[in-house]
Amino acid sequence: MKEFELINRYFKGRGITRRDVNLGIGDDCALVTVPQNCQLAVTTDTLVSGVHFFDDISPRALGHRALAVNLSDLAAMGAEPTWVSVGLTLPNISQQWIEEFTEGMHEIAEYFNVQIIGGDTTQGPLTITICAKGTVPEGKALRRGGAKVGDWVFVTGTLGDAGLAIESRKQGLTIEPEHLKYINNRFDYPTPRVAAGQVLRGLASSAIDVSDGLLADLEHILDMSQVSASINIENIPTSDAMRSSLSFEEQLPYILSYGDDYELLFTVSDDNKSMLDLKLRQYGVEASCIGQIKSGEGQIELLHHGEKFNFEQQGFEHFAKEQV
Amino acid sequence: MKEFELINRYFKGRGITRRDVNLGIGDDCALVTVPQNCQLAVTTDTLVSGVHFFDDISPRALGHRALAVNLSDLAAMGAEPTWVSVGLTLPNISQQWIEEFTEGMHEIAEYFNVQIIGGDTTQGPLTITICAKGTVPEGKALRRGGAKVGDWVFVTGTLGDAGLAIESRKQGLTIEPEHLKYINNRFDYPTPRVAAGQVLRGLASSAIDVSDGLLADLEHILDMSQVSASINIENIPTSDAMRSSLSFEEQLPYILSYGDDYELLFTVSDDNKSMLDLKLRQYGVEASCIGQIKSGEGQIELLHHGEKFNFEQQGFEHFAKEQV
């Protein structure tokens, strides 16, 4: 299939049409209008076969996932996702595969009212690079660098499910079918916390999405904010699937170090905490208080029912094992 | 080297800093401000090793090229390039390679006053996907679909040099050293016609950049504009290197079908032609009139000194040889 045919069949005229898209797929560039008094938020994430997903991932899940991880970054800024560009490198072309892949991508795009405004389709090893754009009212974006001593540390949803899905495939862990289905779904079809991010505007002092693991991502907040934190590990939210499958001790690597859950980790001042609780309930956003910001320079103290707890951190670093 | 180290060393704090970038590399998203009364132009291009460039390409040339092909799309819209996001997938990490690659990228970014605002660095087969953003005054963007019967067809610079560089490497053509140096430079360090694109705003009726070959790219204009064209092949501009190396007949595949020159192909009404000539001279933009738009549905008539001329077209199609 020729590149133009592929784009025409699977992208052009598919999905939603936003009023702020002045020119979509089919010219040298797309043209869009950013609302007045809004900033443009831009993020890029690449998924590479064998690095970020299993070769046997369903194409529909991959299409969903590739977009979801980008929308998650927009969510972490409190931005409203609007437009995405899709760089798609494919090793060989099965119509069935592309149909399912683009279906997965269009589904999540439609759900979040995002329009695919362009991209590039090339031949080569399976790689997907998406550049997602969103808008956020001027000065209202959530950054990593605003956490203050005394702020409370929160996380949405539950942690560790995606990691458990990965390891259950690698190690063949014994997990009940209903739980296995749940965690596989959490890994294959991650939900970017877009509504949560927008609720947090003007309330959270800092935010990040948990893509590299709780401790690794918390470190980013601490580094940028020049503070430390203590985390009460018994308060880290876990799913039924997690609690039914592993002992508390066994859960720790998953909830502390595994990424790919795409929950939001954020901090909120004591003054804003009750307003936040109210807003979260109002919008149906689940979030748990898991610790507090302390003075210091990037240290994380883990507590278990008030007692110090030792844990060796290992975040997900693409180049960690490489020699320079 | 860890991903964060790589980004910190080669991207963060390197290159220019634009005042309209509110938040650059280092958070979940970048934040930028689009000027009032401007539209945002967005384009994405992917370069894959073995498909879009030779494996032995100098990393500096590759860094330049990856950005240049994107800026060329912005140029073809008459947009001012502003910000880019870089998705970089690397098979293995030599500091020397990354240093030279990013140097090539920063050089052209600085030349065009473009800021690298983010990206993603992953491990895998060498692939570069850049999403380039630019701004264009509302309603002033150059599109492919505006060519009218009677408009004149122009192209900037010279055509075929990049194609000649490719074939000289593949076939070992005999080309004089100075000419070889010139055409290799044209392929390795293409110049996006950014100033030309901005000069054309309000004057050209349509525009596109020549990335797939003159005939293939002209076809895009004709299809979108629902017109035909006649091209006087003796008027297609060629370089000294081209004319010294090949006979006129030999030149034809290069100037008609080879892409990668990244010149601008555009149309202008008879009414605007003298103003265009004036402006082009004023800004030092070289452009040649090569034909005229005719009524019809996408046909290209080639003329050689007024006589009909037959030529079999072959554009550069990434998936052309693939079975569906």
Short description:
Chain A contains ten helices and 13 strands. With 324 residues, chain A is α+β, with helices and mostly antiparallel strands.
Q: What are the key terms here?
A:
alpha+beta, disordered C terminus, 7-stranded mixed beta sheet, homodimer, 13 strands, Phosphoribosyl-aminoimidazole Synthetase, Chain A, domain 2, EC 2.7.4.16 (chains A, B), 60s Ribosomal Protein L30, Chain: A, 2 domains, 35% helix, PurM-like_C_sf (chains A, B), 4-stranded mixed beta sheet, 324 residues
Walk me through what this model shows:
The first copy, chain A, has 324 residues and is an alpha+beta fold. Chain A folds into 2 domains: 3-137, PurM-like, N-terminal domain (60s Ribosomal Protein L30, Chain: A, 2-Layer Sandwich); 152-309, PurM-like C-terminal domain (Phosphoribosyl-aminoimidazole Synthetase, Chain A, domain 2, Alpha-Beta Complex), CATH 3.90.650.10. The first copy, chain A, is 35% helix and 26% strand. Chain A has 10 helices and 13 strands. The first copy, chain A, has helices spanning 3-10, 59-76, 95-111, 161-171, 177-188, 194-200, 214-225, 240-245, 248-257, 270-282; strands at residues 21-23, 30-32, 38-48, 80-90, 115-123, 127-137, 152-156, 204-209, 228-232, 264-268, 287-294, 300-304, 307-309. Chain A has a 7-stranded mixed beta sheet with strand order 8-10-7-11-9-12-13, with helices on both faces. In chain A, strands 3-6-4-5 form a 4-stranded mixed beta sheet. In chain A, strand 4 (80-90), helix 3 (95-111) and strand 5 (115-123) form a beta-alpha-beta unit. In chain A, helix 2 (59-76) packs parallel to helix 6 and helix 4 crosses helix 5. The relative contact order of chain A is 0.16. Mean pLDDT of chain A is 92; it is low at 314-324. Chains A, B: This is Thiamine-monophosphate kinase. Chains A, B: Residues 148-297 form the PurM-like C-terminal domain. Chains A, B: It comes from Pseudoalteromonas espejiana.
